[in-house]
Design goal:
globular
Length: 237
């Protein structure tokens, strides 16, 4: 029953994010006279939301491959490559980046939507795509936490991957600004340089906290199962 649920969930979610990436890249064309950002250097790859949608599509494809060629055992002795890749991916990027994108987007939308998604974009960026890329990313990554177990990597490795990814994107944002004179997100325009540095530091700290949140949730959901498995394994010896 659980295996069937996992396969169905992973297949549907992979198709969902693959379609979101395809539709956003192909059809959400914003004229330059509406906003300078969308026509600036970097194309769709300017936006962390787009990066994350690609990450989620790749991750759930890996989940699907693991369903057929790996294992969803709670604590496998020798996890196959697909399972190791899945566990590392979800712990270091899948969960924290999805939650970071979703929480920061909706928090800024609550403060002032013009800081992240101006009303002028509504005719070009449909509401359902907005929810796929900013709401469903949180729902699916939490549901994945419940549907299938994972073994968290060493914190130094998991956090190292996450921080490296975020720093690469931070550098990319500055490359875009250097090339086009436009900040990817309007909120950057209203901050002074010291406040911008503080803002980046707070966001990186928040992203790190989300890593620990994912680890904690995993322990809450699967901790007892891991313990039971270890005890039964010890008795069998």
């Amino acid at each position: 029953m659980r295996e069937g649920l996992a396969i169905g969930f992973h297949a549907v979610t992979f198709l969902q994010f693959a379609f979101a990436v395809f539709y956003d890249y192909t059809y959400t064309i914003v004229p330059y006279n509406v906003t300078r950002v969308h026509g600036a250097f970097g194309g769709k790859f300017k936006f962390l939301t787009f990066w994350d949608a690609i990450l989620q599509a790749v991750f759930f494809l890996i989940c699907l491959l693991n369903d057929f060629y790996g294992t969803n055992a709670v604590n496998p002795k020798k996890p196959p490559f697909a399972r190791k890749l899945k566990d590392y991916f979800h712990a270091s990027l899948g969960f924290p980046v999805a939650m970071f994108v979703g929480v920061t987007f909706w928090a800024l939308m609550f403060v002032d939507r013009e800081l992240v998604l101006p009303k002028a974009l509504d005719p070009y960026f449909p509401w359902w795509l907005n929810h796929l890329m900013h709401t469903m990313i949180m729902v699916t990554t939490v549901f994945e936490m419940i549907v299938a177990p994972r073994q968290y990597p060493k914190r130094s490795r998991g956090l190292g991957i996450l921080v490296s990814f975020m720093l690469v994107y931070l550098i990319w944002m500055h490359v875009i600004y250097y090339k086009s004179g436009v900040w990817v997100y309007p909120v950057m325009d209203v901050l002074t340089q010291p406040l911008r540095i503080l803002f980046f530091a707070v966001l990186l700290t928040f992203c790190t906290i989300l890593y620990f949140l994912g680890e904690t949730l995993n322990n809450i959901v699967w901790g007892n199962e891991h313990t039971k498995h270890k005890k039964s394994h010890a008795k069998s010896k």
